[in-house]
Amino acid sequence: MSSLRGLSKDFRIRGWLQSGQRFSSVELGLPLETPSQLKRTLAEQRIDERLRWLAGLPTKAALRAMAMPQEVNKQSLETGRREVKLTTTSRAVVDPARIEALRSISHPDYDLTKLIRFCEELNLAFATESYLSMAMLTRAIVDHVPPIFGKQSFAEVASHHGGATMKREFNNLHTTSRNIADLHLHSKIGRKEVLPTITQVDSSNSLDILLAEIIVILSP
Question: Fewest CB atoms within 10 A around its CB: which of 45, 92, 106, 220?
């Protein structure tokens, strides 16, 4: 466990560590019980799966580090070229299934091209730890979609659309996305700056509820 905490701190791969929770538990029965051959085989398979996952973390961490904004810029300077190269694997903060569902919608009144690109760029921003961009893209999505709900502002959407739970999620998304984005968009430069973390800018749960509701409204 301490080694996992070290990886989380040193390599910034909390998303991958969380993905490790998907593994099934290893069951061998009670302490004094002799496990059956089937249990032993299943346990060995699950342990092997965990070990392969752990063995791959350093490589994933190295690739992720190479995709950080400062590293991408450094590599561009070292090669002497006006280009950037990205090599990374990351959890998606906007589920690709949501993006594909939006892409499959053809609606006479609403062109979803920009909304889809906002979602795609949000995933890219997360993959490269571009958390300032994440804050601004989330704000852009919230400001972009009110007409789909028959409203002029997202404040109106949050106040009037859906049941109590949806209103709560939408109000949270409206308040946090606007406040966090404003904090970074409109603040003046000072002697000391502190960059946002993923904890500050991650609105993925509420955003997923919003996208799901858009899909329901616009689907035939």
Answer: 220
